[in-house]
Amino acid sequence: MKRILQALSIVLSLVIGLGAIALPVRADADLATGAKVFSANCAACHAGGINLVNTEKTLKKEALEKFGMNSVAAITTQVTNGKAGMPAFKGRLTDEQIAAVAAYVLDQAEKGW
Length: 113
Ligand code: HEC
Prior knowledge:
By secondary structure, this protein is mostly helical. The protein has one domain: Cytochrome Bc1 Complex, Chain D, domain 2. It has five helices and no strands. The mean pLDDT is about 90. It binds heme C. Heme C (HEC) binds near residues 51, 57, 63 and 85.
């Protein structure tokens, strides 16, 4: 019984350890995808986090907070469906690309662009 428990705890710590290594790698991959999606689809209006069309609604941290856009869910919805002067990307970007670009925008906002 003790042996089994020992073996189990080794397996468990291996799984947790590998998970800890794998997670950041995946996050980096998503951000790299997000950066590509952004430069191809968003930079025309939002290069460097600005907003050429509606100058108040930038992608800077303060603006995202002010307009309730500081979450992956809120950005995903807006990118999918569009809003006012911003086009909808549904059908043009996959759900994965939209999630990746949302994560990228939040990461850049956190870093100050
Ligand atoms: C043709 C110009 C244009 C393009 C291209 C565009 N946007 Fe926008 N974006 C806008 C406008 C205009 C708004 C303000 C919409 C509103 O009135 O709420 C906006 C708002 C936003 C906001 C909310 C900002 C805030 O402070 O409330 C986010 C986040 C955003 N865009 C992300 C993106 C992403 C990501 C892409 C690319 C997938 C993209 N946009 C492509 C014009 C654009």
